[in-house]
Specification:
The chain has 337 residues and is of the alpha/beta class. The protein has 13 helices and 9 strands. It has helices at 2-11, 31-42, 54-61, 99-110, 129-138, 154-158, 170-177, 196-202, 222-235, 238-251, 258-272, 280-296, 302-336; strands at residues 16-19, 48-51, 68-70, 90-94, 119-123, 145-149, 164-167, 182-186, 189-193. The longest helix has 35 residues, at 302-336.
Length: 337
């Protein structure tokens, strides 16, 4: 992020940010980096942010960013054509098989009768695949539930074989685009068959159930499924989403700030100084001083100012401790002499 920010400011090139979830903030390791990140949005250096969900929009608005655009995951309708949905009782579940996913998968396996599912094929792989197989054996459902592993061509695998698809997020979008009835699972809960009411509640949050408490054990009729499919294919086609993406890029502009460019130049000088040979915290201290000079004195938001206030206290305590240690070190040396 920071390399892109500095390059954008120096070359006067628009900069855009993409937010997919809380992991989009994993690179913020220090107060200094967080302050620069927040200032980039506050100052308008970020021309626009693309978020795949309303949660993402709300999160970015909290960062003093009023330039956030909803950009849902697109579907290539040439790949995900209308499928031949079988009138059997065989369903496909598609998911990563990792620890954060298998809880609701096990719940679904125990509830197969509630959904009138006679056979369940599970597509996906992950660290919990062996444990999931053990669970299937323990509940004596190995004749009904089969782990199929990773599937490269999901369209042709599903087409003409299944009654419906179980999953969350993108799995649901692709299945609904193909015309399948779907069952929504995730976050250790089962919400059941996706009818139009549930569809409308989850479509702005990337089709996951993180905020959804509603449950539905009644399969929607063919007309309701067709309504959902038509909306997905008309609103989430890659052609339409890409057009919206390009329009936003064309109509958005970054603000170019000389103080950000100056910050980069000073950090560059610091990193190139061969005389600086110290611990990482000391280097961070020097970088923080530069950030406070070129960012802290320009910020107008309470949130970023509070970050600097907290950091100032931390570094002042560090300076006092360092000086005290140096004094003690001098006392010890004097005593030795």
């Amino acid at each position: 992020f920071f390399s892109a920010l500095f390059a954008s400011q120096i070359t006067h090139t628009k900069l855009f940010y993409s937010f997919h979830g809380i992991s989009s903030f994993n690179f913020l390791k220090t107060v200094s980096s967080t302050a620069v990140f927040q200032y980039a949005f506050e100052s308008g250096a970020i021309a626009n942010t693309f978020a795949v969900s309303q949660d993402g929009i709300n999160c970015m608005n909290n960062l003093s960013s009023n330039k956030v655009s909803f950009l849902p995951n697109p579907i290539d309708l040439n790949v995900f054509k209308i499928a031949n949905v079988c009138q059997n009782r065989k369903w496909a579940l598609i998911s990563r098989l990792d620890e954060d996913k298998t809880g609701d998968i096990k719940m679904l396996i125990n509830d197969l009768d509630k959904f009138e599912i006679d056979e369940l094929d599970i597509y996906g792989s992950g660290t919990e695949m062996e444990n999931l197989q053990t669970f299937i054996d323990e509940v004596h459902l190995h004749d009904k539930v089969v782990l199929k592993g990773y599937c490269k061509d999901i369209y042709h695998t599903l087409n003409n074989h299944y009654r419906g698809v179980i999953g969350t997020d993108r799995v649901l979008i692709e299945a609904m685009a193909m015309g399948y009835p779907t069952i929504l699972i995730g976050y250790n809960k089962i919400n059941g068959f996706v009818n139009k009411k549930i569809f409308d509640l989850i479509k702005t949050n990337n089709f996951n159930n993180i905020h959804l408490s509603m449950q539905n054990y009644i399969m929607p009729n063919e007309e309701e499924i067709a309504t959902i499919t038509n909306e997905v294919r008309s609103s989430y086609s890659s052609q339409k989403i890409v057009a919206s993406y390009l329009d936003t890029i064309k109509s958005s502009d970054s603000t170019f700030m000389q103080n950000i460019c100056n910050l980069y130049l000073e950090i560059k000088k610091l990193s190139e100084n061969p005389s600086i040979n110290m611990c990482s915290f000391q280097k961070e201290r020097l970088v923080y001083d530069l950030i406070y000079t070129y960012i802290g004195k320009y910020t107008l938001t309470k949130e970023t100012s509070n970050l600097f206030a907290q950091a100032n206290l931390t570094y002042e305590l560090y300076d006092l401790l360092t000086n005290r240690l140096l004094e003690l070190k001098g006392i010890i040396k004097d005593d030795e002499n």
